[in-house]
Design a protein that fits this description.
Elements: H1 3-11, H2 15-19, E1 23-27, E2 33-36, H3 38-43, H4 63-71, E3 79-87, E4 93-105, E5 108-117, H5 118-122, H6 129-136, E6 141-146, E7 149-153, H7 155-161, H8 165-171, H9 179-190, E8 199-206, E9 212-224, E10 227-236, H10 238-276, H11 282-312, E11 321-323, H12 325-335, H13 337-342, E12 346-350, E13 358-360, H14 362-379, E14 385-392, E15 411-417, H15 448-458, E16 462-467, E17 473-480
Parallel strand pairs: 12-14
Antiparallel strand pairs: 1-2, 1-5, 3-4, 4-5, 6-7, 6-10, 8-9, 9-10, 11-13, 14-15, 15-17, 16-17
Helix pairs in contact: 10-11, 11-15, 12-14, 14-15
The chain binds adenosine-5'-diphosphate.
Length: 485
């Protein structure tokens, strides 16, 4: 079946889609819009839907939202992805509720999305009985703040806080949140107009008995009768957090216990290679090499597991110093030399002659190089080339405008490129999530890149991936220069 027939099988006669109130789009495997209806065009501020065809659906949303939307696993059922914003042609943020699905027809995969103007729902008056019933029976605590004052509190919120709605109204939402987490929330409540997008915070709610409950707080800004209004959803995640901690502790304990015997085996193998290699046959030497490679791999895996459990426990403390990236790269390449030689790979380096030191934690940054090189080596074809480019970032580059980067600080960019199979576009953001892999049956456990992202962001840097399917993948990150040595 041709692509066009597949598309027709998916959405049939398209005319009725244009009559729908919701915006609808269909995108191909690369995320390019192949169909958009009239309502979507209107939401995005275009006269004709045809203008959207050929664009990436990701261009319709702010980048933070794209990351959130693409993190969700989709199947053939439409899944609600909650409130979001469409960035219109004149750069306005149009509040919408989004739902998406992924459908397969023959061997093509299509992404189907719908966006309804959020005002259609948010405008439903609280006094409207159905809405009130829905809110009263919600499993999440809900409170509505109008002009800085609590206008409504649902039953679940009262249960969580241990206060009646009028007591909550007197206290205010920020006063119910532990002092450690209060600052951001208080700021949003004080300036509701400054919030354009829904925000999430992990907070501890202090209930009437003084007990702290770990909660996820989602604050959604809406305009109700022209008044800046905040819808606040509070979800008790303490049981989930407890289970996560138990899992993390278990991983940490197990990884530590595995480390000692593995170090002994590694040492014994090295001794054996040094002392007995001359007496061994070629085949036996090969077995020894394989055993050493696999020990190195196990070691890297265990290091990653320990790092993840440390990160999750919030125990990652950086030991900052001046770090020489070229030296780190050499150390990482050296530690993988067995594999690199075996697969006959070339490592091409392009590093400026006078590289200033980076402000960073050497061991952690070595892990970044190890994890990225490990992937590049794993996915490179035999005899392939891996390029490592290091360059200075232009001080006016939009890369530095990103929140989290340091101001008035020079940055260096590192890019590691391979000539492997590449990564499908819809995975480019997702693979930085924990346990995310393009092929769930492939090698690895999907932690390497999550660790890379966490380490780089702790250093006030950024990391991203580029790829064209079939033409390799490249991973870039930026890090601040340590000034005034
Ligand atoms: P792991 O390699 O342990 O699975 P990572 O977090 O390092 O975990 O990588 C996540 C996924 O990203 C991999 O499973 C793979 O699908 C994809 N990936 C990472 N690096 C590359 C690369 N250089 N080329 C192709 N795919 C890659």
């Amino acid at each position: 079946m041709s692509e066009k027939n597949n598309l027709d099988a998916l959405i049939g006669g398209r005319e009725f889609l244009n009559d729908l109130q919701e915006g609808v789009w269909v995108a191909d495997g690369n995320g390019r819009i192949v169909f958009a209806n009239r309502s979507l065009a209107r939401l995005a501020g275009f006269e004709s839907a045809d203008i959207l065809v050929g664009k990436s659906w990701r261009e319709l949303f702010p980048s933070g939202e794209v990351a959130r939307l693409t993190r969700t696993k989709l199947d053939s059922e439409m899944k609600s992805l909650g409130d979001s914003f469409i960035v219109s042609r004149n750069n306005e943020h149009v509040p919408v509720s989004v739902a998406m699905a992924r459908r397969k027809v023959a061997d093509s995969s299509w992404l189907i999305g719908t966006a309804v103007r959020a005002g259609v729902r948010a405008g439903a008056n609280v006094a409207d009985t159905t809405s009130r019933e829905v809110m009263e029976n919600s499993v999440d605590g809900i409170c509505i703040i109008e002009n800085g004052h609590i206008a409504y509190v649902n039953r679940r919120f009262e249960e969580l806080a241990g206060y009646s709605s009028s007591q909550v109204a007197r206290l205010g939402l920020d006063r119910l949140i532990s002092a450690r987490d209060r600052k951001n929330v208080a700021q949003i409540i004080a300036e509701p107009g400054s919030v354009l997008m829904p925000v999430h915070h992990e907070v501890r709610l202090v209930n009437r008995t003084g007990h702290e409950i770990e909660c996820e707080l989602r604050i959604v800004p809406v305009k109700s009768d022209g008044k800046p209004t905040l819808l606040c959803f509070l979800r008790d995640v303490s049981a989930l957090k407890q289970a996560e901690r138990a899992r993390t502790d278990f991983i940490a304990m197990l990884s530590h216990d595995l480390r000692t015997p593995l170090a002994a085996i590694k040492e014994a193998m090295s001794l054996l290679s040094e002392t007995a290699a001359a007496r061994l046959e070629e085949r036996q030497r090969r077995y020894l090499t394989i055993a050493r490679e696999e020990i190195d791999r196990l070691n890297r895996m265990i290091d990653n597991l320990i790092e993840v459990s440390r990160m999750e426990a919030g125990k990652t403390v950086l030991r900052l110093d001046g770090v020489d990236l070229a030296e780190l790269l050499s150390t990482a390449v050296e530690s993988m030399s067995l594999l690199i030689n075996k697969r006959n790979l070339t490592i091409e380096r392009n590093i400026p002659p006078r590289m200033p030191p980076i402000l960073g934690d050497r061991d952690r940054l070595l892990r970044v190089f190890n994890n990225l090189l490990d992937n590049a080596v794993k996915y490179s074809p035999v005899g392939g080339t891996i390029r490592v480019d290091i360059s200075f970032v232009d001080p006016n580059s939009p890369l530095l405008a990103h929140s989290g980067t340091l101001t008035n600080t020079g940055y260096v960019q590192v890019t590691i490129s391979d000539s492997g199979p590449g990564i499908p576009a819809e995975f480019l953001d997702r693979i930085f999530g924990k346990f995310e892999r393009v092929d769930p049956h492939g090698p690895g456990i999907g932690l390497g890149l999550a660790i890379v992202r966490s380490i780089i962001e702790l250093h006030h840097g950024r990391v991203w991936a580029h790829s064209k399917l079939g033409e390799g993948a490249s991973f870039s990150f930026i890090l601040p220069i340590k000034e005034n040595p």
